[in-house]
Design goal:
The protein is about 50% helix and about 10% strand. It is α+β, with helices and mostly antiparallel strands. The protein has a five-stranded mixed beta sheet, with helices on one face. A hairpin with a 2-residue loop joins strand 3 and strand 4. Helix 3 runs antiparallel to helix 4 and helix 3 runs parallel beside helix 5. The longest helix is centred in the C-terminal third of the chain and has 30 residues.
Length: about 200
Amino acid sequence: MSDTEIELKWKGHKYDVNFDEFPNGLEQATLGDLKEKCKKITGVPVNAMKLLASGAVMKDDSSPLSLYGLRAGSKILMLGQRPNQTEQTASGNPEEASLVTRIQHIMQEVNHDFGTKMKEYEQEVGRFLSSGQQDPKTKKKLQDTGAYLSEKLMQALFALDGIQCQPGFHTARQKRKESVNFAQDLHDRVDQIKGLLKTASL
């Protein structure tokens, strides 16, 4: 093993990754450079992979590998899947397919959290507002539920906003737009219900 080589582990396989083309080796090569090499070796898109050193996820693509404590002979673990070959995208680019998968995962969480909770929340608030006795504790509980739902939706919107679609990634861009609109509509509904609760007289 050369003095610019580290070991990549992925799905039970081991690969040697060298940085001989960098004069200063691991002091110069960045996490982004490592990800590109991992992509070429495994076929896993950069957007779909996580690289771990000593059990911690390396996140800043612009940081040199030495900043993560990597040196010749270091071992890193990669998590990630090759894109589903049946995934249809406008570009046919595996990077776009991985973005579409990320968007789908975000929306799966939204649908899981709001599939029934939203309807239940609307019904509970409706019963509370129509009742003759508007208990302060019940109102507080409903307000807390509204705050929780708003926070979860904002997290989803932030996650979607963080997905950058390259030029030509029309499928991913359209799915992100649809997902943002869906999550924003839900957020607006929650805000409307919270507004009704706020103005309710006790």
